[in-house]
């Protein structure tokens, strides 16, 4: 198994994969947001051969769905702010009569949950939203929780990684550690050390299964 692990920032990669690579796993800090993630992933897939791409890093967890320190695994990913904000509410691309922007079911999520299960790493599975704009108010967090009842977490890159992997015909998944509760931005309430410990454990399990 040749696994490409794509984080947003180098600190996430250092935490997830100390040293940047392991047998069977290549790490890449691809940048923040769906566009940087998609371009970096597409370039990596064009210059190397991989069986699975994993979008990994920190995430915000929806209150009472994914607590700080938990590992979340996507069964589907959705780019939740791709569309139009209208007086009648948010319209996604299909609501605008445009193609693209579909919810993407992961093609490598089962391999990931099996690998985590084999290593006794607890994980929550559900939809992970991709947002170009990180949620920073309680009002927006409550709105997203209501509109997306199956969503357990949000991050900023998963959909971009998935889009690039899908275009290249490579299986993909999203695995994250929850560092903060989605809502009013309060950097002091983020627990990055706890999330990084959890992320290191989860990625270690994936590396063991890939080796
Ligand atoms: O401040 C630090 O020390 C620090 C160290 C490592 C990473 C960070 C980040 O800010 C990572 C940003 C990255 O994390 C995802 N993320 C985390 N929480 C959320 C959220 O509530 N909503 C959306 N995205 C979130 C995201 O994928 C970012 O790219 C800071």
Automatic annotation (TrEMBL):
Residues 30-187 form the Nucleoside phosphorylase domain. Pathway: Quinol/quinone metabolism; menaquinone biosynthesis. One of its GO terms (molecular function) is methylthioadenosine nucleosidase activity. Keywords: Hydrolase, Menaquinone biosynthesis. Pfam families: PNP_UDP_1 (PF01048). Its EC number is 3.2.2.26. GO terms for biological process: L-methionine salvage from S-adenosylmethionine; menaquinone biosynthetic process; nucleoside metabolic process. GO terms for cellular component: cytosol. It catalyses: futalosine + H2O = dehypoxanthine futalosine + hypoxanthine. InterPro entries: FL_hydrolase_MqnB, Nucleoside_phosphorylase_d, Nucleoside_phosphorylase_sf. Catalyzes the hydrolysis of futalosine (FL) to dehypoxanthine futalosine (DHFL) and hypoxanthine, a step in the biosynthesis of menaquinone (MK, vitamin K2). Belongs to the PNP/UDP phosphorylase family. Futalosine hydrolase subfamily. This is Futalosine hydrolase. It comes from Cryptosporangium aurantiacum.
